[in-house]
Amino acid sequence: MFTMMPPGGSAARGEALAEMSVLQHQILTDKKVGDLLAAAAGEDLNDVEQANLREMTRQYQQATLLPESLVEAKSLAGSRCEHAWRTQRPANDWQGFSANLKEVVKLSREEARLRAEAKGCTPYDALLDIFEPDMTSARLDVLFGDMKTWLPDLLASAVEKQAQRSFVPPQGPFPTATQRELGLEAMKMLGFDFNGGRLDVSAHPFCGGVPEDVRITTRYDEDELLSALFGVIHETGHARYEQNLPRAWAGQPIALARSTAIHESQSLFFEMQLGRSEAFLKHLLPAVHARFGSQAAFSEENFIAWNQRVKPGYIRVDADEVSYPAHVVLRYEIERALINGEIEVDDIPALWDEKMQAWLGLSTKDNYRNGCMQDIHWTDGGFGYFPSYTLGAMYAAQLFHAAKTALPGLQASIADGDFSALFEWLRQNIWQHGSRFSTSQLITQATGEDLNIRYFREHLTSRYL
Q1: 210 — alpha (psi -120 to 50), left (phi > 0) or beta?
Q2: Measured between alpha carbons, how far apart are the two ends of the chain, in Å?
Q3: Containing H/E element for 154?
Q4: 20 to 30 A Cα–Cα from 263, which one of 95, 155, 214, 317?
């Protein structure tokens, strides 16, 4: 739907997806399912079976909170909004987009209300829990509040430090076909299983599918080389997680990824912790030379510096890792207020501009395509997802620190292009467990402690100051 479907197929595909959503909802919410789950709770189960039952029960309870009519209406509204967004964003058509978004928000608020009443929490927290079980806005406010005390100064210091040196930008054009070859080579380096997945093009990069068939996408600009390349590296992190989930439990909830933040931790582990590291960039550079020749921008020193450049910009997916959290906190604060009924859709552009100026010194007034229309998430009601990106960055930094401690020769191995020990560490500590453990348990077992923002701060400080 996001890659090869012709524009004229959108309405029919949307209706088909809505019908499938309803059928799936009917099966999952059947009273017999509840009876079976209740009976299973009284059985003598081992720890894996208990975890599986926990995840089954959670899915059942989440589904039974919603009426069939809302499931169908939300699916249809999301399909309409997402399809129209593909042309409305390039046209900077906020008025057209906001009309569709209002319907999505109305239905998302209704969903949030039903979930919040059952859970005894705020409407936004009820949606946040779908993506990140047990996370709350209160805890996010503590984490993000901590970050707000040091990130603006760190960002300013990094920009000031880098202003003292000159960068040579890569000179294009960079043909799409050759960029694709480079992306495929990077995927190969990073262990992507091409027997169970492929790379395509879409309006917004994503990773989807099942462990046996993982599809990732990127988008190309022939005047810019690195955006598509690191988009591929990011999505490859998602894909490696999916391809290494426990096959013995396939088809069961316990075999699914733990949470969206853990999923994002894997993509950001690949893109930022590994991909932007000096050791990996040195290893990647010969593949760039082989396809695009030698130019001043591709000297080793400049290539590393360019890929670690800190430059606040409008686009989240192209942001450096120092300014990226600002994009996330901005979206989190807006979507929380929107779902909790504190603001309306018409308030979004002004708030976006205000927060962009406060965080990054950039104005998005009347620049909707590069402001509040740039992401696909809200088009189908994905409210509550955005915090996962910065939570994922925090988890990634903590995991990479633990991996370096466990693997003393890691940096040398990366420089040699040998990632086997690192990927085996990830497989043992994250990938093979699926949803067997809670997020807190998973991270504590892998690193020795629950989420600690200190590692993210230390990583940014070490790399950029």
Answers
A1: beta
A2: 43
A3: helix 137-162
A4: 155
Phi first, then psi: give them for residue 365, nearest 5 degrees: -60, 125
For residue 280, the SS3 value is: helix
Q: How many CB atoms lie within 10 A of CB 201?
A: 15
Beta pairing, strands 213-218 & 197-201: parallel
Q: For residue range 122-135, what is the model confidence (pLDDT) as tens digits? A: 999 999 999 999 99
pLDDT in tens, 22-68: 788 788 888 999 889 999 999 999 999 999 999 999 999 999 999 99
| DSSP 3-state percent helix, strand, coil across the chain (nearest 5) | 65, 5, 30
Q: What is the DSSP string of 71-127?
A: HHHHHHHHHHHHHHHHHHTTTT-HHHHHHHHHHHHHHHHHHHHHHHHHHTS-HHHHH
Does the annotation mark 82 as catalytic? Answer: no
* E strand or H helix at 391: helix 387-406
Cβ burial of 220 (10 Å; 0-12, 13-18, 19+) is buried
Question: Distance between CA 321 and CA 325 in Å, rounded?
Answer: 7
* Burial (CB count within 10 angstroms: exposed 0-12, middle 13-18, buried 19+), residue 396: buried
The SS3 assignment for 174 reads coil
Long-range CB pairs of 68-72 (<8 Å, 24+ gap) are 68/22, 68/25, 68/26, 70/107, 70/110, 70/111, 70/114, 71/21, 71/22, 71/25, 72/18, 72/19, 72/21, 72/22
pLDDT at residue 1, rounded to an integer: 47
- Rounded Cα distance, 203 and 225, in Å: 17
Q: Whole-angstrom Cα distance, residue 421 to residue 423?
A: 6
Cα-to-chain-centroid distance, residue 420: 24
- Asked if 349 contacts 94 with a C-beta cutoff of 8 angstroms, the reply is yes
List 235, 264, 271, 335, catalytic entry: 235
Say what the pTM is: 0.94
Q: Give me the residue label for tokens 């806005």.
A: 137
Cα distance between residue 259 and residue 3, in whole Å = 25
* 3-state secondary structure (DSSP) of residue 361: coil
Which residue type occupies 82? Answer: E
Nearest to 94 by CA among 330, 371, 386: 371
Other beta carbons within 10 angstroms of residue 66's beta carbon come to 16
Distance of CA 294 to the CA centre of its chain: 33
With CA atoms as reference, report the closest residue to 321 among 452, 457, 142. Answer: 457
Buried b vs exposed e over 93-106: b needs ≥16 C-beta within 10 Å?
bbeebbebbebbbe
Q: Could you tell me the two tokens for 205?
A: 């990069």
Q: Name the DSSP letter for residue 298.
A: G
Reported confidence tier of residue 5, pLDDT bands at 50, 70, 90: low
